[in-house]
Design brief:
This protein is of the alpha/beta class and 357 residues long. The protein contains twelve helices and eleven strands. The protein has a single domain, classed as 3-Layer(aba) Sandwich (Rossmann fold).
């Protein structure tokens, strides 16, 4: 398979924040502006079954929290589906750049994340009984919240890591919602190191069968307030330190580890999404970014997925860890330029026909 390499010497329309200036720009410029224009809310969603709801944490954060950033005359609306243990707050820099280029943005906290409903007592643990719940939640968000704001303008998907698996799953189930989709370091197969996926799956299945599915995976740890930049998935020290301080200050952002149930579902979902039978359902043009220094997900699964869909390509981002969107400006600027150029390029005649345009 031909794989492009991101041209980091191209001319870019966005000037991203430098390492030295990042924290000040976020505190003094970005956050005040976004707070002024943000329309946040909560979306009611289906509850878990009575058996699954046992032990659900009592919290004022019922439903699914979301943030909308509307603007008059927008080119379109970008829907963000983020990664494992992340939050809307983590994407404020990216939202600032997208908004500045004329796009509305919509982002939702997945269940078990950020300010959305929690289904286990320990809010640092992510639990999900069916991975498809994430997909159904996102679809309901798009149908009931995003589309009324979009006003018939195009919808574009930006999906990272776990959100990339959710996004790919979504494109297979609901192929007509998005005009274009960017999958950044999508979690289509976890990198489990020396442990083969079948062994990890058996372990998770056994724990679930014993009624221990909501417990923390033995390989995972509680939130570490002293997590170092070297241990992080960001390539930008300034971006890591800025968000990690926000996590220290607010327990809602300290989600940090998987349950056995989540592990089981994540393994199953990746295998399902990249299967030929499912991948061929995708009609939306897809741009997939691989991070050269990624240690969390396997590139081979991403390549299988792209080879099986009608219209997709892969771009390798050199000198980037898993969270490409949290790279220093010399990587971030050409990465964003590639995304915007992809969203804005005209679809070819076959692609347009496939997407009903």
């Amino acid at each position: 398979m031909n794989k492009e390499v991101l041209d980091q010497n191209q001319n870019c329309r966005i000037a991203c924040f430098s390492e030295e200036d990042f924290s000040k720009q976020m505190h003094d410029v970005v956050e005040p502006f976004l707070e002024k224009i943000c329309r946040d809310g909560r979306m009611r969603t289906e509850r878990l079954s009575p058996g699954e709801a046992e032990g659900m944490k009592e919290t004022p954060h019922e439903g699914l929290y979301y943030e909308l950033y509307p603007q008059q005359g927008a080119k379109g609306t970008i829907v963000i589906s983020y990664g494992f243990t992340e939050s809307c707050l983590k994407y404020h820099e990216l939202i600032w750049y997208f908004y500045g280029q004329g796009y509305q943005v919509a982002v939702m906290d997945h269940r078990g994340h950020g300010r959305s409903v929690r289904d286990v007592e320990d809010v640092t643990i992510v639990y999900i009984d069916l991975f498809s719940r994430y997909v159904k939640d996102l679809h309901r968000f798009v149908q009931t919240v995003v589309k009324p704001m979009a006003q018939d303008k195009p919808l574009y998907l930006f999906a990272h890591s776990m959100g990339g698996c959710i996004g790919a799953f979504y494109l297979e189930q609901y192929p007509d919602d998005f005009s274009k989709a960017v999958l950044s370091s999508p979690m289509l197969e976890l990198n489990l190191g020396a442990c083969p996926p079948w062994a990890a799956r058996i372990l998770c299945d056994l724990k679930v069968a014993k009624g221990e599915g909501k417990e923390r995976l033995f390989t995972q740890s509680p939130f570490d307030p002293e997590e170092s930049f070297a241990e992080s998935s960001a390539s930008s020290r300034a971006r890591h330190e800025y968000y990690h301080q926000l996590r220290r200050d607010n327990a809602a952002y300290q989600t940090s580890s998987a349950s056995y149930y989540w592990g089981k579902e994540a393994i199953n979902a990746g295998k399902f999404v990249i299967s030929t039978a499912q991948a061929k359902k995708i009609r939306t043009p897809v741009l997939l970014f691989q991070a050269q220094l990624d240690t969390l997900v396997k590139p081979s699964a991403q390549e299988k997925f792209i080879s099986r869909i009608a219209c997709g390509r892969i771009v390798l981002v050199e000198n980037a860890r898993h969270e490409i969107y949290r790279s220093p400006r010399e990587v971030l600027e050409p990465y964003l330029e590639e995304i915007l150029s992809f969203y804005e390029e005209k679809a070819s005649a076959p692609d347009a026909a496939a997407n009903g345009t």
